[in-house]
Amino acid sequence: MEALKTDSPMVNEQLRGLTEQEAIKRREQGQGNNVRIQTGRTYAQIVFQNFFTFINCILFGIGFVMVLLGLYGDAFVSVGVVMLNVIVSLVQETRAKRQLDQIALLTRPKATVIRDGQEKIVDPSEIVIGDMICADAGDQIVVDGAVVGDGKMDVDESLLTGESDLVSKKAGDEVFSGSFCVSGRATYEAQKVGVESFANKLTITARQFRIVRTPLQKDINLVVRLLLALATVIGVLFIASFAIDGASAKRIVQTAAVIAGLVPAGLILMTATSYAIGAVRMSGKGALVQRANAVESMSNVNVLCLDKTGTLTANRINLAQVVPLGISETELKNALGDYARSTRAGNRTSEALKTGLEGQSRKILDEIPFSSARKWSALTFDEEARRGVYVLGAPEMLRPYLTDDTDIAQAQIDQWLDHGMRVLLVAHSQDLHMLHDSLGQPRLPGDLQAIGLVSFSDELRPEAKETLDGFLKAGIRLKIISGDNPYTVAALAKQAGLADDIRAISGTELEAMSASEVGQIAEDMTIFGRITPQQKEMLVQSLQDQHHYVAMIGDGVNDVLSLKKAHIGIAMQSGSAATRGVADIVLLGDSFAALPKAFMEGQRILNGMGDIIRLFLTRAFYAALIIIGTAIMMNTQLFPFIPKHASLLTLLTVGFPTFGLAAWAHVGVPEHHLVRSTMRFAIPAALLTAAFGMGIYFYYILTIYEPNPGLYTLGFARTALTTFLVSCGLVLIVFAEPPTPLWVAGDELSGDWRPTGLALLMFATFILINAVKPLRVFFELEVLRVTDYIFIATIVLVWTVALRSIWRSRLLERFIGLPEG
């Protein structure tokens, strides 16, 4: 919808713009700006990338062949786990996309165009080539074009270039979508719209989906690839054997399904499930997870970089004190009041001055708005009552321009800084100076005189102290990076609970250092003040070069580069759309109090996934060993598993139980040597389970029904093997989360009885399946004798005691020389 601006000024006759009919005609000719900006992957991309993974395609193919052969039950069971994996991933990613789309919609900019000689506010999608668009201070440039008319403006192009210096624009200069008018007013003609505009091209490139693997995901991918290679080798050998034996197509497909099941597709499912559980928990605590693995990634963070403004402080400042230098206090207050009301580039400082001081808007000849790189702003007044250049900025940045080379009340400055105040120097030149050179670059006169000092107090967030304490307890080092004076920031940090011995450094000191020196400073210092956006990115890179896992919190467009550089980027909801777009986590309440909870949630995910990986690997290893052992010692006709037995074993021992392990995972420092701890658990368990399992299988095949094993006897032996493996798999759950010291062997004491209760529930489910004939027939289980169950239970008990003894004696570590711990 478009609206007529009621306060629009008279439009220059040369800039009457298009008529509505011309705009409609150009839009019909495809010259409109009606491009839809995606906030990430499309729904189609999300569905495609979750459905058609390599292992999914293999299992879908096997399921399809089973359907063609009439093996509908086998196909349903084999493909069911894959579909659960896909569904969980789709729910998580579409949920995050919807929330991000809603945020983007709320912050969508408007544009003021000239149509039929009148200024009208329209949605950017209604702009066409040739439109005249007005830009005032604070407006976003929505399409590419060129400035026309007599207007001038200073533009922030940091989102596009990474350079924080403002760029002056006048008639004939190009402007690019995605930049912002900071001061002044100008009109520009739309020349490139839609996908041709600079910002949209940049957005398409910047928002292309890229997979960022966490250390856990890298470990899981390694495991999956190794098991995939193992399954491939076994599959090729069995296919060759079947070709020699002339096996039926049905038998070949069933065997292929079992062998493909060695690849733990459920492990990928549980990873996605753990991420989804973590994301849901975090959404209730004020954090939107935009990258599925971001919460788990948080547990790897050992350095957190954050700004003072918006994180430690509530993004509000108050005028504290005014100290005149060479003039009266009244004169200084009047000058500051006029300055705040005359600037066209308002900020928090000018708002605080307007709130605390009286004044009036006056005519200005030239203006340089504040920038984070310069650390100062300036106005040239051209009235009888207020004339000359007035500059407001950081004392150390204005010293080179002062004629008086005194300490400008350094004692007062130090006193304020020690109390965490923000300090600005007020300087004045009585002469009328233009503040831009012939090339349009900002410049200050060299005859400035210091006329006063102003202090401002930052309002600490109420949760700041508790939050910082949470970071420190989690073992995370803090680096506070700010554009303010480092000693001011250090004082505030101490008020928020940081130690008194923290060290600070200024960005001006960093400029003269080499890369190696910056790396050492990044490691040693805690407070970094007067830092430019480029230095912020450099500090993040330096920390990463020293093998730190770095998280970065930001809210402005000047944080985009450092957010993308960090391992994990965190944005405030009220921050720029670009910042939210590149962030992995968005803090919905603009409070970083949710982050310590995110760190703990990441630890919970890692601890839960540690148990889940151990169980999946153990199952895959002993199943592979039993398959290989059977083929070597007997023949391929006595293949120990059928798809339904393998699927039942998977569902009861590592399928349903691992959902509980993910949901009930505990908070605590995770195991740093995940591969070592996994191998210590999985190798003894897999070897012992395979040995006992093959013993039971061979016993039923070769002893009880010798010498004429047939289909019945083979099914009986398979059922006995499945019963044993299900029992062992459920006991392993108790070992993975020991409820009492009696069960402590393969893992540390958890004291949580819920996993044990879940294991008992799964065992009751297995008994129910055996007892209910339709279920037993569906899973192709045979009815065992009472003596068989007693025999199997005895073997399980012996296996349990033996495995507990092997783990407790550290037999594996001593055998292969693996260091303990």
Core attributes:
8-stranded mixed β-sheet, elongated, single chain, Rossmann fold, 30 helices, 8-stranded antiparallel β-sheet, disordered N terminus, 821 residues
Question: Which SSEs are present, and which pair or pack?
Answer:
Blueprint: E1 3-4, H1 20-28, H2 43-51, H3 54-68, H4 72-106, E2 111-115, E3 118-122, E4 132-135, E5 144-156, H5 158-161, E6 167-169, E7 174-175, E8 180-192, H6 198-206, H7 215-245, H8 249-260, H9 265-283, E9 287-289, H10 294-298, E10 303-306, H11 308-312, E11 313-324, H12 329-342, H13 348-356, E12 364-368, E13 376-382, E14 387-393, H14 395-398, H15 410-418, E15 422-429, E16 449-460, H16 464-473, E17 477-481, H17 486-495, E18 504-506, H18 507-511, H19 515-524, E19 527-529, H20 533-545, E20 550-554, H21 560-565, E21 568-572, H22 577-582, E22 585-587, H23 595-633, H24 643-663, H25 674-704, H26 711-736, H27 754-771, H28 773-778, H29 786-808, H30 811-816
Parallel strand pairs: 10-17, 10-20, 17-19, 18-19, 20-21, 21-22
Antiparallel strand pairs: 1-3, 2-3, 2-4, 4-8, 5-6, 5-7, 5-8, 9-22, 11-16, 12-13, 13-14, 14-15, 15-16
Helix pairs in contact: 2-4, 3-4, 3-8, 4-9, 4-24, 7-8, 7-23, 9-23, 9-24, 12-13, 16-23, 19-20, 23-24, 23-25, 23-26, 24-26, 24-27, 25-26, 25-29, 26-27, 26-29
